[in-house]
Amino acid sequence: MTIRVVVADDQDLVRTGLVMILDAHPDLEVVGEASDGLEALDVATRLRPDVLLVDIRMPGLDGVEVTRRLAGPDVADPMAVVVITTFDLDEYVVGALRAGARGFLLKDAGPELLVQAIHAAADGDALIAPNVTRRLLATFADQAPDVPVQPIDPLTEREEEVLTLVARGRTNAEIATELFVSLSTVKSHVASLMVKLGARNRVEIAMWAYDTRRVRAD
Predict the structure, then answer these.
(1) How many C-beta atoms lie closer than 10 Å to residue 24's C-beta?
(2) DSSP character at residue 105
(3) Cross-sheet strand order for the sheet of 28-34
(4) What Gene3D superfamilies has UniProt attached to this entry (predicted)?
(5) How far apart are CA 163 and CA 214, in angstroms?
(6) Which residues fall within 8 angstroms of residue 14, CB to CB, at 6 or more apart?
């Protein structure tokens, strides 16, 4: 299945490079481009791509606000959004993920990681650049309450294991390998976690784990 992508970046050279990287893969198709936040919102709303790749800093609306309007907590049919940026700042990372982004990459992450992030977002997974993950998780841990918050329906032992691995950034396939279970079993546990935690995606599961100190950054 071909993954349809819209690319939004205000720098023409960067946007062209991103399009070339994605179009080089037979299962990826760039169906639209945007050079500012308002255009990104319009193009993505009209075309409904499988994934929106959006720069964090753009004229009109920044990438965080675009993400919030297309994938935020109040959006009934959230879009898969991957945020990409040159700026390795905590507030950008946290802001983008809380706005609903399924991925966060730095522009120097490289083509392979970019393509992985697009695939992960399209599959309902999430990918955060490894060089920002540890600091990001530490940020969530610092903001978390001292007493862990428990879900209304207790997590099973296996769900606790899956929760930890999701929070560590593992994909479904990696979790299946580590726990010696099938991919469908992992997907079932992740779906159950979403229901119990009131999370809409894997990023929100991971954020809940660190926000409540169920998983710690160390």
Answers:
(1) 10
(2) E
(3) 28-34, 3-8, 51-55, 81-85, 103-106, 127-128
(4) 3.40.50.2300
(5) 9
(6) 55, 107
Smallest CA-to-CA distance from 66 within 40, 84, 89, 85 is with 40
What DSSP character marks residue 149? Answer: P
CATH code of the domain covering residue 204: 1.10.10.10
Residue 164's nearest CA partner among 97, 127, 100, 217 is 217
Per-residue pLDDT at 89 exceeds 80 = no
Structure tokens at 55: 């720069």
Domain assignment present for residue 217? The answer is no
Q: Which residues contact 24 (CB under 8 A, 6 or more apart)?
A: none
- The predicted pLDDT at position 23 comes to 94
Do 127 and 170 share a domain, yes or no? no
In a domain, 92, yes or no: yes
Boundary of a domain, candidates 113, 138, 163: 138
Highest mean pLDDT among 89-93, 149-153, 179-183: 179-183
Task: Return d(Cα 211, Cα 13) in angstroms, integer.
Answer: 38
Task: DSSP letter for 179, please.
Answer: H
